[in-house]
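thought: fold this chain, then report.
action: predict
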Amino acid sequence: MAAKRNHYSEHELLTLFQGVCLAVHEMHSCQPEPIAHRDIKLSNVLLDAHGRPVLMDFGSADTMNVEVTSHKESLRVQEQAAEQSTMSYRAPELFNVMDGCTITGKTDVWSLGCLLFAMCHYETPFEMVAGQTGSLALAIAQGKLKWPENNPYSSEVQGLITSMLKLDPAERVTLEEVLNKLGGLV
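observation:
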């Protein structure tokens, strides 16, 4: 018999998540060069003595916008992501980095979507699908979310997660849009 897990109330969940998003927003707003975290995951978020989230482990942090101008550069970015970014939270554009693309802060938005899903359901969004396909990378590349039965959260939370986990970074919401949506939900 599985142990009963206690879920955060939706307000608690979104308040904690908003705190993480604000920390990432600070990184994305650094001047003169914005910074992306590139490894946002549950184990990189601690709670302080007052229960507020603290983002940690900046070993994978890098320049937010990376222009990939050559095959050599695409391999470097892809290898760096494989070494420093946890697979189950890694944005799909970091699995197969294309020449001529720009890697942006939307990689962190993807990871935040995975984080929020994990905060809701105790596993990352593509783990259940990976169990069926046998490959986490394939499950992420397909981008098909499988929602657990008995989801205790509103359709607004599910919609927020879905908007953050769009395969195409151009279709993925921005961090500012996430914060705006959270402002209306918290």
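thought: worth noting. The chain is about 45% helix and 10% strand.
final: tokens above.
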